[in-house]
Protein backbone atom coordinates (compact mmCIF):
# COMPACT_ATOMS: atom_id res chain seq x y z
CA UNK A 1 0.00 0.00 0.00
CA UNK A 2 1.44 3.36 -1.04
CA UNK A 3 2.03 6.21 1.40
CA UNK A 4 -0.55 8.29 -0.48
CA UNK A 5 -3.17 5.56 -0.04
CA UNK A 6 -2.43 5.31 3.69
CA UNK A 7 -2.79 9.09 4.12
CA UNK A 8 -6.04 9.10 2.14
CA UNK A 9 -7.46 6.27 4.25
CA UNK A 10 -6.42 8.08 7.43
CA UNK A 11 -8.13 11.27 6.27
CA UNK A 12 -11.34 9.37 5.54
CA UNK A 13 -11.23 7.77 8.98
CA UNK A 14 -10.70 11.14 10.65
CA UNK A 15 -13.56 12.68 8.66
CA UNK A 16 -15.89 9.80 9.61
CA UNK A 17 -15.05 10.21 13.30
CA UNK A 18 -15.74 13.96 13.12
CA UNK A 19 -18.99 13.46 11.22
CA UNK A 20 -20.38 10.95 13.71
CA UNK A 21 -19.15 12.97 16.70
CA UNK A 22 -20.92 16.05 15.38
CA UNK A 23 -24.19 14.14 15.09
CA UNK A 24 -23.84 12.84 18.64
CA UNK A 25 -22.80 16.17 20.16
CA UNK A 26 -25.72 17.85 18.41
CA UNK A 27 -28.37 15.40 19.55
CA UNK A 28 -27.01 14.14 22.91
CA UNK A 29 -24.73 16.96 23.98
CA UNK A 30 -20.99 17.06 24.60
CA UNK A 31 -21.03 15.80 28.18
CA UNK A 32 -23.54 13.02 27.49
CA UNK A 33 -21.49 11.67 24.58
CA UNK A 34 -18.70 9.27 25.48
CA UNK A 35 -15.68 8.19 23.48
CA UNK A 36 -17.29 4.74 23.34
CA UNK A 37 -20.40 6.28 21.75
CA UNK A 38 -18.26 7.88 19.05
CA UNK A 39 -16.34 4.64 18.43
CA UNK A 40 -19.58 2.69 18.08
CA UNK A 41 -21.19 5.25 15.76
CA UNK A 42 -18.13 5.66 13.52
CA UNK A 43 -17.17 1.98 13.46
CA UNK A 44 -13.48 2.69 14.07
CA UNK A 45 -11.13 1.01 16.51
CA UNK A 46 -10.29 2.83 19.73
CA UNK A 47 -6.64 3.01 18.69
CA UNK A 48 -7.60 4.65 15.40
CA UNK A 49 -9.55 7.35 17.21
CA UNK A 50 -6.70 8.07 19.61
CA UNK A 51 -4.26 8.17 16.71
CA UNK A 52 -6.12 11.22 15.40
CA UNK A 53 -7.27 12.84 18.67
CA UNK A 54 -5.71 12.98 22.14
CA UNK A 55 -9.06 12.96 23.95
CA UNK A 56 -12.70 14.02 23.59
CA UNK A 57 -11.89 17.71 24.06
CA UNK A 58 -9.25 17.59 21.33
CA UNK A 59 -11.77 15.87 19.05
CA UNK A 60 -14.45 18.48 19.79
CA UNK A 61 -12.09 21.39 19.08
CA UNK A 62 -11.09 19.78 15.77
CA UNK A 63 -14.77 19.30 14.99
CA UNK A 64 -15.50 22.99 15.63
CA UNK A 65 -12.61 24.03 13.37
CA UNK A 66 -13.70 21.70 10.56
CA UNK A 67 -17.39 22.60 10.83
CA UNK A 68 -16.45 26.29 10.92
CA UNK A 69 -14.50 26.08 7.66
CA UNK A 70 -17.19 24.02 5.92
CA UNK A 71 -20.05 26.26 7.09
CA UNK A 72 -18.41 29.52 6.02
CA UNK A 73 -17.43 27.98 2.67
CA UNK A 74 -21.07 26.89 2.21
CA UNK A 75 -22.39 30.38 3.01
CA UNK A 76 -19.82 32.04 0.74
CA UNK A 77 -20.84 29.86 -2.20
CA UNK A 78 -24.42 31.06 -1.71
CA UNK A 79 -23.51 34.77 -1.49
CA UNK A 80 -24.28 35.27 -5.18
CA UNK A 81 -25.91 38.10 -7.08
CA UNK A 82 -25.22 41.55 -8.46
CA UNK A 83 -25.99 43.41 -5.24
CA UNK A 84 -25.17 43.18 -1.56
CA UNK A 85 -28.80 42.48 -0.67
CA UNK A 86 -29.08 39.73 -3.29
CA UNK A 87 -25.98 38.09 -1.86
CA UNK A 88 -27.34 38.42 1.69
CA UNK A 89 -30.64 36.88 0.56
CA UNK A 90 -28.62 33.94 -0.75
CA UNK A 91 -26.87 33.51 2.59
CA UNK A 92 -30.15 33.68 4.53
CA UNK A 93 -31.74 31.16 2.17
CA UNK A 94 -28.75 28.85 2.59
CA UNK A 95 -29.13 28.86 6.38
CA UNK A 96 -32.81 27.98 6.14
CA UNK A 97 -32.23 25.24 3.57
CA UNK A 98 -29.46 23.67 5.64
CA UNK A 99 -31.64 23.29 8.73
CA UNK A 100 -34.79 22.39 6.79
CA UNK A 101 -32.79 19.63 5.10
CA UNK A 102 -32.04 18.15 8.53
CA UNK A 103 -35.72 18.42 9.59
CA UNK A 104 -34.49 20.84 12.26
CA UNK A 105 -32.85 17.99 14.19
CA UNK A 106 -29.74 18.96 16.16
CA UNK A 107 -29.89 22.70 15.58
CA UNK A 108 -26.62 24.63 15.31
CA UNK A 109 -23.50 22.84 16.52
CA UNK A 110 -21.86 26.17 17.36
CA UNK A 111 -24.81 27.45 19.37
CA UNK A 112 -25.22 24.11 21.11
CA UNK A 113 -21.59 23.96 22.25
CA UNK A 114 -21.67 27.64 23.24
CA UNK A 115 -24.64 27.01 25.51
CA UNK A 116 -23.26 23.80 27.03
CA UNK A 117 -19.56 24.66 27.34
CA UNK A 118 -19.26 28.45 27.17
CA UNK A 119 -19.04 28.81 30.95
CA UNK A 120 -16.83 25.76 31.48
CA UNK A 121 -14.02 25.72 28.95
CA UNK A 122 -12.02 28.71 27.70
CA UNK A 123 -10.75 26.86 24.60
CA UNK A 124 -14.29 26.02 23.50
CA UNK A 125 -15.41 29.57 24.24
CA UNK A 126 -12.62 31.04 22.12
CA UNK A 127 -13.23 28.66 19.20
CA UNK A 128 -16.97 29.32 19.12
CA UNK A 129 -16.48 33.06 19.47
CA UNK A 130 -14.25 32.98 16.38
CA UNK A 131 -17.02 31.22 14.44
CA UNK A 132 -19.64 33.81 15.34
CA UNK A 133 -17.21 36.70 14.75
CA UNK A 134 -16.41 35.50 11.23
CA UNK A 135 -20.05 34.75 10.47
CA UNK A 136 -20.89 38.33 11.49
CA UNK A 137 -17.99 39.64 9.39
CA UNK A 138 -19.37 37.91 6.30
CA UNK A 139 -22.79 39.48 6.83
CA UNK A 140 -21.27 42.88 7.66
CA UNK A 141 -19.34 42.83 4.37
CA UNK A 142 -22.59 42.27 2.46
CA UNK A 143 -24.35 45.01 4.43
CA UNK A 144 -21.53 47.44 3.62
CA UNK A 145 -21.90 46.57 -0.06
CA UNK A 146 -25.66 47.15 0.14
CA UNK A 147 -25.06 50.53 1.81
CA UNK A 148 -22.67 51.61 -0.92
CA UNK A 149 -25.22 50.59 -3.55
CA UNK A 150 -28.01 52.53 -1.86
CA UNK A 151 -30.05 49.40 -1.09
CA UNK A 152 -29.88 49.83 2.64
CA UNK A 153 -30.55 52.79 4.89
CA UNK A 154 -29.59 52.34 8.52
CA UNK A 155 -27.98 54.30 11.32
CA UNK A 156 -26.52 51.11 12.79
CA UNK A 157 -22.87 50.28 12.19
CA UNK A 158 -22.82 47.28 9.77
CA UNK A 159 -20.91 44.94 12.10
CA UNK A 160 -23.26 45.72 15.00
CA UNK A 161 -26.25 45.04 12.74
CA UNK A 162 -24.61 41.84 11.50
CA UNK A 163 -24.21 40.53 15.05
CA UNK A 164 -27.88 41.30 15.68
CA UNK A 165 -28.77 39.29 12.56
CA UNK A 166 -26.64 36.34 13.72
CA UNK A 167 -28.33 36.43 17.13
CA UNK A 168 -31.78 36.47 15.49
CA UNK A 169 -30.84 33.56 13.23
CA UNK A 170 -29.59 31.51 16.17
CA UNK A 171 -32.87 32.16 17.98
CA UNK A 172 -34.90 31.05 14.98
CA UNK A 173 -32.77 27.90 14.58
CA UNK A 174 -33.24 27.05 18.26
CA UNK A 175 -37.02 27.55 18.15
CA UNK A 176 -37.42 25.44 15.00
CA UNK A 177 -35.34 22.72 16.62
CA UNK A 178 -37.69 22.82 19.59
CA UNK A 179 -40.96 22.89 17.62
CA UNK A 180 -39.79 21.02 14.49
CA UNK A 181 -41.72 23.72 12.62
CA UNK A 182 -40.16 25.77 9.81
CA UNK A 183 -42.43 28.67 10.76
CA UNK A 184 -40.11 29.78 13.56
CA UNK A 185 -36.97 30.18 11.48
CA UNK A 186 -38.98 31.71 8.64
CA UNK A 187 -40.38 34.28 11.08
CA UNK A 188 -36.80 35.14 12.02
CA UNK A 189 -35.82 35.52 8.37
CA UNK A 190 -38.88 37.70 7.69
CA UNK A 191 -38.04 39.94 10.65
CA UNK A 192 -34.44 40.34 9.45
CA UNK A 193 -35.51 41.26 5.93
CA UNK A 194 -38.08 43.74 7.24
CA UNK A 195 -35.44 45.29 9.52
CA UNK A 196 -33.17 45.84 6.54
CA UNK A 197 -35.90 47.70 4.65
CA UNK A 198 -37.01 50.39 7.11
CA UNK A 199 -40.22 52.26 6.36
CA UNK A 200 -41.54 49.54 4.10
CA UNK A 201 -42.59 47.08 6.78
CA UNK A 202 -44.38 43.89 5.81
CA UNK A 203 -45.28 45.27 2.38
CA UNK A 204 -41.88 43.95 1.28
CA UNK A 205 -42.38 40.69 -0.62
CA UNK A 206 -40.74 38.19 1.70
CA UNK A 207 -38.60 35.53 0.09
CA UNK A 208 -39.32 32.08 1.51
CA UNK A 209 -36.85 29.58 0.10
CA UNK A 210 -37.47 25.91 -0.49
CA UNK A 211 -40.60 23.92 0.38
Word description of this protein:
The protein is mainly alpha-helical. 73% of the residues lie in helices and 0% in strands. α7 packs across α8. The radius of gyration is 19 Å and the shape is elongated.
Outline the low-pLDDT stretches.
200-206
What does the overall shape look like?
Answer: elongated
Annotation, overall tally of beta strands:
0
Summarize the biggest pleated sheet. Answer: none
Task: Assign the CATH topology of the largest domain.
Answer: Tetracycline Repressor, domain 2
Helix content: over 70%
What's the gyration radius in Å? 19 Å
Question: Which structural class best describes the helix and strand composition?
Answer: mainly alpha
SSE ordering: HHHHHHHHH
Number of domains: 2
Strand content: under 5%
CATH class of the largest domain: Mainly Alpha
Termini gap: 47 Å
Which architecture of the largest domain per CATH? Orthogonal Bundle
Helix count from the secondary structure assignment: 9
> Averaged pLDDT, please?
90
CATH superfamily of the largest domain: Tetracycline Repressor, domain 2
Summarize this entry quickly.
The protein has 211 residues and is mainly alpha-helical. It has 9 helices and no strands.
Supply the key terms.
211 residues, mainly alpha, Arc Repressor Mutant, subunit A, Tetracycline Repressor, domain 2, 9 helices
Secondary-structure blueprint of this entry?
Blueprint: H1 3-28, H2 35-42, H3 46-52, H4 56-78, H5 84-101, H6 109-117, H7 122-148, H8 158-179, H9 182-195
Helix pairs in contact: 1-2, 1-4, 4-5, 4-7, 5-7, 5-9, 6-7, 7-8, 8-9
Amino acid sequence: MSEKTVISKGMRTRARILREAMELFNTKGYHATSISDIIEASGVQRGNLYFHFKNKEDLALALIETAHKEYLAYLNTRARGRSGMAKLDGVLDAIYEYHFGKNFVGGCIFGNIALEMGDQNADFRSAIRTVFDQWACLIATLLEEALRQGELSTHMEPYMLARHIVASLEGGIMLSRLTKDKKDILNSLDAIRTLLRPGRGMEVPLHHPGP
